[in-house]
Amino acid sequence: MTSSQKLRIAVLGSGSGSNCQSIFNAIDDGSLNAEVVIVLTDIKGAYILERAANRGIRNELIDCQGFKNKFPLESQQALAAQLTELNIDLICLAGFMRLVKHPLLNAFPNRILNIHPALLPAYPGIAAWKQAIDDKASQAGCTVHYVDAGMDTGEILMQAYVPVLSNDNAESLHERIQVQEHILYPAAIKSAAARLAL
Length: 198
What we know:
The protein is an alpha/beta fold. It contains six helices and seven strands; from the N terminus they run βαβαβαβαβαββα. It has a seven-stranded mixed sheet with strand order 3-2-1-4-5-6-7.
């Protein structure tokens, strides 16, 4: 793609979609030359779908074949085919709680991003902000990284730091990390787009 072309994004999320909203906001204010083509979730009724619908963006439920946590290979193969047909340039995971594996990784090499609420490689996995509090860490933050076959193990693209305050609990720290996530993710997507233009 060239720098004048709009980046075609697919967003995958499992929850309210606040990071998806940050992408919408960056597109609206002109800081991100992109179009969110489709928003997908594995959770029926997730608010991220409503955010997309409110903007007239195609939004769909991913068929995970009844599995609560697994992301079946057949589902990933179908999704890879769908997103290829839509000419998606970049897949952005925004609170997507299933592990992406080779059907999607092979179809979109170095074109899947994730945002994680910790300074990777510290605190991979779920509830990373709680891990930081339990560990009495002095700083926390968030990381945007390329997705590989591991859990939060891909190449780090960008990070933002958040100090852990003496009166912090898991909830207050998480709220402050999210503020930084909403700044960091659009900036990292812009950086990833520049790489694709090379």
